[in-house]
Amino acid sequence: MNPLLPVSAVLALVAALLLVLLLRRGGAGGQSGGEFAGIAGRLDQMAQSQSAQQAALDARLQAQERNLARTVEERLSDLNKRVGDRLQESSEKAGKSLTDLAQRLAVIDRAQASIIELSSQVVDLQNILSNKQARGIRRDPAQ
Asked: Measured between alpha carbons, how far is 71 from 84 in angstroms, rounded to an integer?
């Protein structure tokens, strides 16, 4: 609601009351109809001026509201773009980190397989070294 609308209504009511009072006073005091017509014309001019000022104020307020809405929309759009860019960057970094992690895990898996194979070979070697017959050492019973 326009804040000047109640003010305009009050001014129009005051003007009407003044006109009624002047008409009553004029009838009792013998004032001419020309004076009343002049006063009525002046009040009409004031009401039209007030109405024009109110319309101009309405137009300015609507222009400011449109400007504010456009500015808010632009800032919101810019913010959305920046958030989207940051999310894209974060997604790319997370993808790269996961790829690097997968490569490192593959290297660790290969190393673990090599260690298991080497451990098996060491156990086999230990079994061979502990078995003197397998090594080719024979005890001479004469000794």
From this structure: 20
| Residue 140 is assigned to a structural domain of this protein | no
The set of residues, in sequence order, having a beta carbon less than 8 Å from that of 9 and lying 6+ positions away, is: none
Helix (H, G, I), strand (E, B) or coil at 140: coil
Q: Residue 57: inside a domain, yes or no?
A: yes
Residue 142 counted as domain residue: no
23-36 b/e with 16+ CB inside 10 Å = b?
Answer: eeeeeeeeeeeeeb
Domain-located, residue 61? yes
Range of the domain at 23: 4-135
pTM score over 0.90: no
Total count of domains within the chain: 1
Question: Could you report the per-residue pLDDT of 39-81, keeping only the tens digit for each?
Answer: 778 878 888 888 889 899 999 999 999 999 999 999 999 999 9
